[in-house]
Structure formats: structure tokens, C-alpha cells
Write a structure and sequence with these properties.
The chain has 291 residues and is an alpha+beta fold. The chain has ten helices and five strands, in the order H-H-H-H-H-H-E-H-H-E-E-H-E-H-E. The protein is 62% helix and 10% strand. Keywords: Membrane, Transmembrane, Transmembrane helix.
Length: 291
């Protein structure tokens, strides 16, 4: 790396290709130019054939120099493409598509970068999914809601698309936990989350917001749609044999709300749904209020 570091101090040329070419030029053309000068000094200026020969040699050198510069640029394309691919991945998340079939040093560089970036991308995607997923139920978590769900709501509402929200709470869940233990409570939560997930549609998002509390984001859903989804979820849990037990019965209460205008913030929508959830609780539980 010492020579490479020294070359960085040059004010010209600035490019990597130019600096490699400068080294090649110094190594091959300086001796040739020195030879030309020596011949001229030794033989004087009165020999036209000598000048003709030297002129042809110099012209050939210039042509070869141009071709060499072009060829070096082509040979260094693996480095250029690898750098560009890394910049695209870091700046825009675009995965590289570098060739992996070449066996020389440049080919191994491209193959190594391709493999490393793809593995890194897969690891990042896996970690990202873990970071936005509730480990117990498989539903999305609050981080997903804050970083992805709410911004998506704001974009859709700004575009005028209808959007609805459900808040879901298990009835008397504390009694199940206290009487039968947290292991049983966890099993109930997992079964309830699975029932909610299977009752929603593609494009809906189920989020665990608290211990036994969930919310369901329903893009492009009007008031009738939110009522249909709420009743489907409630019926699914009420009729699920894997959730019920001779020792306890699991039911849920649901509150729903639909954003009425683009100025309705997510906080306002959530408060409306939560208020309807408490109405459902006060109405005897195991029901849904979405009006």
C-alpha cells in the first residue's frame, strides 16, 4: 500500500486508471525517449532517414499509448463496476448483479463482493423482520407501527384513500393468567393472534400493542368493510376449539373506526377505535362496536 499511498499525493492524474497509466508510461516510454535523444545527439541532425525512422517510432508509440490507455480502462472495469455496485447498494439498497464466472483476481473480487453483499442483505432483512415482529405471537410490534404503519397511514390518507382501524382486547385475560399461569396465557395469546391473522385480508396488518391488546390496520377499508372484518375476527375466536378450554373461555372485544378526512391523524383514529372498544366492553364483552 506504500506506493498507492504515495500516488495519492499527486495533483495529476486523479483517476486510478490515470495513475496506473503514468507508472506504465514512466516504465516504458521514458527509456524509449531517452534512446531517441541519445541517437540524435550521437548522429547529429543531417540524416533524414534517421529522422524518418525516429518519427515513425514516436508515432507508433503515441498510437500504442492511446490504445493502452483505452485497454487499461477496459481491464479495470471490474473495479469500476464493483465500486458502482457498492455505491448503489449503500445509497439506494439496490442489490448488485456482478458476474461470478471469472477466475482471475478481478473476477474473484466481483464474485466475493456479490456473495458478501447478498449474504449481508439477507442478514439485514432477517434482522429487520425480527426487529419489527412480536416474538411471541408473530404479529407486528410497536416499532413496526411507529416506523412503517403510521407513515403508511399518513401517505394513504393524504392521497384520499379510506383507512380503518380495529383495536382488539381479550376479555378477562388477567384471570386466565392468574389462575392458570403465564404459560397458558402465552398459549392463549398465540392462538388469538393466529386467529386474527387468518381472519384478516392480504394487505391488512396485525400489531400487538400491549400484553393482551392488538390493533389491526385496514388500508382501503370503509365503514362496512371494518364491520365485516371485526365480526369475522370475533366469530373466529369465539368458535376456535384450540382457544377454548373446559376451565376457561376466551372472548374478545373489538372497537373500530374509519378515518373520515385527510386531517384525521392516526392518534385521533386510534382514540376513536379505543373509545368504541370500551363501549364493547361495557356492552357485555364478546362483541364489536365500529359505529
Amino acid at each position: 500500500m506504500r506506493l498507492y499511498s504515495i500516488m495519492q499525493n499527486l495533483s495529476w492524474p486523479k483517476s486510478y486508471v490515470g495513475r496506473i497509466f503514468l507508472l506504465c508510461f514512466v516504465g516504458t516510454h521514458i527509456p524509449l525517449l531517452g534512446l531517441v535523444a541519445l541517437v540524435l545527439l550521437n548522429h547529429g541532425a543531417g540524416q533524414p532517414d534517421l529522422y524518418w525512422t525516429l518519427g515513425v517510432a514516436l508515432a507508433g508509440t503515441l498510437v500504442a499509448t492511446g490504445f493502452t490507455f483505452y485497454a487499461m480502462g477496459c481491464m479495470l472495469q471490474p473495479v469500476v463496476k464493483t465500486t458502482a455496485a457498492l455505491d448503489q447498494y449503500v445509497g439506494h439498497g439496490v442489490k448488485p448483479d456482478l458476474p461470478v464466472v471469472y477466475a482471475d483476481e478481478a473476477g474473484r473480487l466481483m464474485a466475493s463482493v456479490q456473495s458478501t453483499v447478498l449474504k449481508l442483505g439477507s442478514a439485514i432483512e432477517e434482522l429487520t423482520l425480527i426487529s419489527i415482529t412480536d416474538p411471541l405471537t408473530g404479529a407486528r410490534n410497536r416499532r413496526w407501527l411507529n416506523e412503517i404503519g403510521i407513515p403508511d397511514y399518513e401517505r394513504r390518507r393524504a392521497g384520499g384513500s379510506p383507512f380503518s382501524l380495529l383495536t382488539v382486547d381479550l376479555d378477562n385475560f388477567k384471570a386466565i393468567n392468574d389462575t392458570h399461569g403465564h404459560a397458558t396465557g402465552d398459549q392463549v395469546l398465540m392462538a388469538v393472534a393466529d386467529a386474527i391473522l387468518t381472519s384478516t385480508r392480504a394487505g391488512d396488518h396485525v400489531v400487538r400493542t400491549g400484553g393482551d391488546e392488538f390493533c389491526v390496520l385496514l388500508p382501503a377499508t370503509d365503514r362496512q368493510g371494518v364491520r365485516d372484518v371485526a365480526e369475522r375476527i370475533r366469530s373466529s375466536i369465539a368458535g376456535a376449539s384450540e382457544i377454548t378450554s373446559p376451565d376457561y373461555q376466551v372472548t374478545i372485544s373489538i372497537g373500530g373506526a374509519t378515518a373520515r378526512d385527510a386531517q384525521c391523524s392516526f392518534t385521533d383514529l386510534y382514540r376513536q377505535a379505543d373509545a368504541n372498544l370500551y363501549k364493547a366492553k361495557n356492552n357485555g364483552r364478546d362483541n364489536a362496536v365500529t359505529a
